[in-house]
Design brief:
two-stranded antiparallel sheet, DUF1800 domain-containing protein, DUF1800
Length: 433
């Protein structure tokens, strides 16, 4: 097997399954996964998957608890089913590159599933997946309007001090969402914004909230909680009302510092922990020239010469590693619920970063001795699913020419087929992407 299909599947996608066809043109194969409208995870027909249904399920749980019942069964079912469906798509699907992009952008605009359990799956489907190859400004505005982010960063309770509601209730601003959008999601401190800008942006976003008791379910703009008058942000003046918030978010999404930040993160994720400056410059230029077109930036990303140069250098994070192993042993989709537990045990729970900055994206964060020992133990256990498989054949199918001779020799000397397969799955080259 040629190296390019392997690099395409490992560096850009989620690893090969032995039965996967080998693409004749790896770049065209990657491009094909960037078309709009590709299917997402299959959800059961009875799962509350729309916002009205999700809010209704949450109300049922709340009423049950108030009546003395134990637990929140609807919440538990929604969380478990959404998570399992998304993982199953990664383990068994053929759109690994697109799933990697969904994971990347979900980590960039991160929420914590434990804080907003009812909404996490809907957020990833409607905010991230729906815009993953569109304009960044559309993704950013959708994020700022979604109940998951509004609740996670407390903007639903942010009230303009001089608004009618603020005067009546004596409540004020919450700056969490404004601060994280500036610091993490868009321009970063490199833009030179000040604390005054954070406060002003928080005023711009007052009134951005949601409701779940009646229509319209989801985002609402509460004019009586919005700080009146125009506001200045980083030298620009924005009008009052919801329009000013959309204008501010759009301007931030198109800012050159945002494009530089996004380019750096994309190259770091798909190419190297230490992003090559020339590669960052190229992706930055595409984002700048296209007004933040993520599809165009992604197509440019797969055409970076640096992205195709062996050896593979980045350490797979726990989620990537678990998915790649399960694909290598051709695990069935129904392993997804247990896979979520595996990832949690390895330090990277699904949709569960510890902070708004998301999970780290460098090998140093995932190469500690304890985490690596857990990986080895888990891989040894999961190899039982592939017991009887010829380790050399698996290595050829999923690693091809990047498999080292030392790995094949060690597998050949192993005491059992399971041990041989484990040696392939824990080899240095399998840990890399």
């Amino acid at each position: 097997m040629d190296a390019q299909p392997v690099i395409a599947a490992i560096r850009f996608a989620q690893g090969r399954r032995p039965a996967d066809p080998i693409p004749a043109d790896p770049m065209a194969w990657l491009d094909s996964q960037l078309a709009p409208g590709l299917p997402g995870p299959d959800l059961p027909a009875d799962l509350p998957a729309t916002l009205p249904a999700i809010f209704a399920a949450g109300r049922e749980d709340t009423e049950r608890v108030r009546a003395g019942g134990m637990g929140r069964p609807n919440q538990a079912r929604i969380v478990q089913t959404e998570t399992a469906a998304a993982i199953a798509l990664s383990v068994g699907g053929a759109q690994g590159f697109r799933e990697r992009l969904v994971a990347f952008w979900a980590n960039h605009l991160a929420i914590q599933r434990g804080r907003v359990p009812l909404f996490a799956g809907h957020y990833v489907r409607e905010v991230i997946r729906a815009h993953v190859t569109g304009k960044f400004e559309d993704m950013l505005v959708a994020m700022a309007r979604h109940p998951a982010m509004l609740a996670y960063l407390d903007n639903n309770g942010s009230i303009g001090p001089n608004s009618p509601a603020g005067q009546r209730m004596r409540r004020g601003l919450n700056e969490n969402l404004a601060r994280e959008i500036l610091e993490l999601h868009t321009v970063t401190p490199a833009a030179g914004y000040t604390q005054e800008d954070v406060t002003s942006f928080a005023r711009i976003l007052t009134g951005w909230s949601f409701q779940g008791q009646r229509e319209p379910y989801g985002f609402v703009f509460r004019a009586n909680a919005h700080e009146p008058g125009p506001k200045r942000l980083m030298g620009r003046t924005f009008p009052p009302g919801q329009e000013g918030g959309v204008m501010a978010l759009t301007w931030l999404a198109r800012h050159e510092k945002t494009h530089r930040h996004l380019a750096t993160k994309l190259v770091r994720h798909f190419v190297a922990d230490d992003p090559p400056p020339a590669a960052v410059d190229r992706i930055y230029g595409v984002l700048r020239d296209t007004g933040g077109d993520l599809g165009a930036a992604t197509r440019a990303l797969v055409r970076l010469p640096e992205a195709w140069q062996p050896p593979l250098g980045k350490l797979r994070n726990p989620q990537d590693y678990v998915i790649a192993v399960l694909r290598a042993v051709e695990a069935p989709d129904d392993i997804a619920p247990r896979a979520a537990n595996f990832m949690q045990n390895l330090g990277q729970g699904w949709w569960s970063p510890p902070a708004p900055i998301g999970f780290p994206d460098s090998g140093a964060a995932w190469s500690g001795p304890e985490i690596m020992v857990r990986r080895l133990d888990w891989a040894n256990n999961i190899s039982g699913r592939g017991a009887g498989r010829d380790a050399a054949e698996v290595a050829e199918a999923v690693l091809g020419p990047i498999c080292r001779p030392e790995t094949l020799r060690a597998a050949a000397r192993a005491g059992s087929a399971r041990e041989a397969l484990t040696l392939v799955l824990v080899s240095p080259e399998f840990h890399r992407r």
